[in-house]
Amino acid sequence: MIPGPEKPSILDIPLKRWFPLNLETLLVILLVVTALVSRFYDLGARAISHDETNHYVPAYSLYSGNGYQYDPMTHGPLQFHMMALSFALFGDSDFTGRIPAALLNIATILVAIFAFRRYLGRTGALVAGALIIISPLMLFYARYARNESYIVLWGILTLYAILRYLERGETWALFLFTAVNALHFTDKATSYIFAAEEALFLAAYFIDRISRREWMQPRRRANFLLGLAITVVFVAAAAGF
Hints:
With 241 residues, the protein is mainly alpha-helical. 72% of the residues lie in helices and 3% in strands. The longest helix has 23 residues.
């Protein structure tokens, strides 16, 4: 259910007449600053791990002009190109190799705070952003040269695009959905899992909507539901075999 217009809350209260911010704006600023500091402070201090080495070496090879060769063990090419771009812009170091992961994690926090206000409410969106900031898992991988920060952003944007299109049917939401899924498929094999989950949810949503509608010929509705049930049985049996 989409929340309706919110009544004035404590978030709207101006802090001071001479201070042109309300509480909500101040909290957003504090969350963004905390995200920046927690993701970038001493980012290059930790030694590169084994997993990170598998990403640093191909990215450095691409940056050095020796080319890049896809290896499914290290997933898609997007991360390597972003790391190589970071090396080209800021020099090659432990710090710069982790910049893309840190930036995309901060982007995830911003999406939660601003885009999901529509579905979580203003307070809920602030809480969601704060939880991502303090999450040990998110903090670790935001400072780690792997794909996790990337796929969390693709996941949250995919969810937003689906909700937005189902709510309003806006064309730009379809473009966002397509672009995010394309980026995910160039990034990591989890894209197949995400796509399957999206398909299952949307199929269930479609079936629910179409079965609730009034059919001009009730017999066709019964045939549709019967055919659907048989299809589900055959798919389940095939999966079992």
